[in-house]
Structure formats: structure tokens, C-alpha cells
């Protein structure tokens, strides 16, 4: 599919969270300004995202998904199937703990990335 792991992760973030500013995308992917700009450039050149004026503030730009990489669903089907089988082996109570952990871990990693980014720019 000619996309790297960060590219796929960014597309996933956009698909799950919807359009956002490049700064928000950078924060969610843990990238600083320069790498985020190059990421958006690559995705835009490949036809997966577009830059558009923000509906709230015309001075801002948002990045919005416009298509999925060809073959992404097909490539991910085996992994999704295995993960589904793995998750089905847990009880509802165990799943609740797992989902709680991943939600909290995500928040912790996001806070750490924010702290690192502020440390770099401060």
C-alpha cells in the first residue's frame, strides 16, 4: 500500500476522530510540526486526505480523510480476525478491565507526548 506505520496510524486517527487541524493530528500521533507537515503532504499526495479551510475559523486548516488505502481492509482482515478470536476468549468482566486499561494507557501516553512536546518547545 506504500504507506508507513505512522501514515496508517494517522489515517486511523482521522477515520476514528474525524477531521482535525494538523496540530491536533500531530498531538495525537506524537509528531512535532515538521514531521506532521510531511505526513500530511504524503497523505495528500497519495489522495487519502485533503487540507480544507476550517468551518469555524477560515484562517485555520483542517485535515480530512477522503479515501482509504486500496487493499487496507483486505490486508487487515487476518489480523482483525485473530484479534476477534483472542477477545472472544475473555469474559465480559475481563474485557471491561482490558478496555479500561487501554483507554487509561492511551491517556497516559498522550499526556507524556504532550509533556515532551512542551518541553521541546519551552
Describe this structure in words.
With 122 residues, this protein is mainly α. The chain has five helices and two strands, in the order αααββαα. It has a two-stranded antiparallel sheet. A hairpin with a 7-residue loop joins strand 1 (49-53) and strand 2 (61-65). The longest helix has 30 residues, at 92-121. The mean pLDDT is 85.
Short account of what is shown:
This protein has helices spanning 5-17, 22-29, 33-45, 72-88, 92-121; strands at residues 49-53, 61-65. The chain has 122 residues and is mainly alpha-helical.
Features:
mainly alpha; 122 residues; 66% helix; two-stranded antiparallel sheet
Order of helices and strands: HHHEEHH
**Cα gyration radius (Å):** 17 Å
| Biggest sheet features | 2 strands, antiparallel
Instruction: List segments where confidence is low: pLDDT < 50 over at least 5 consecutive residues.
Output: none
Strand order in space, largest sheet: 1-2
How much helix, percentage-wise, in residues? Answer: 55-70%
Number of strands: 2
**Beta-strand percentage range:** 5-15%
Amino acid at each position: 500500500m506504500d504507506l508507513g506505520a505512522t501514515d496508517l496510524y494517522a489515517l486511523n486517527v482521522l477515520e476514528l476522530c474525524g477531521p482535525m487541524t494538523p496540530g491536533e493530528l500531530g498531538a495525537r500521533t506524537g509528531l512535532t510540526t515538521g514531521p506532521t507537515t510531511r505526513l500530511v503532504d504524503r497523505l495528500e499526495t497519495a489522495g487519502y486526505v485533503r487540507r480544507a479551510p476550517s468551518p469555524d475559523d477560515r484562517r485555520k486548516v483542517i485535515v480530512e480523510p477522503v479515501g482509504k488505502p486500496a487493499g487496507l481492509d483486505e490486508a487487515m482482515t487476518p489480523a482483525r480476525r485473530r484479534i476477534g478470536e483472542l477477545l472472544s476468549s475473555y469474559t465480559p468482566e475481563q474485557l471491561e478491565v482490558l478496555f479500561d486499561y487501554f483507554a487509561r494507557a492511551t491517556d497516559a501516553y498522550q499526556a507524556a507526548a504532550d509533556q515532551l512536546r512542551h518541553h521541546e518547545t519551552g
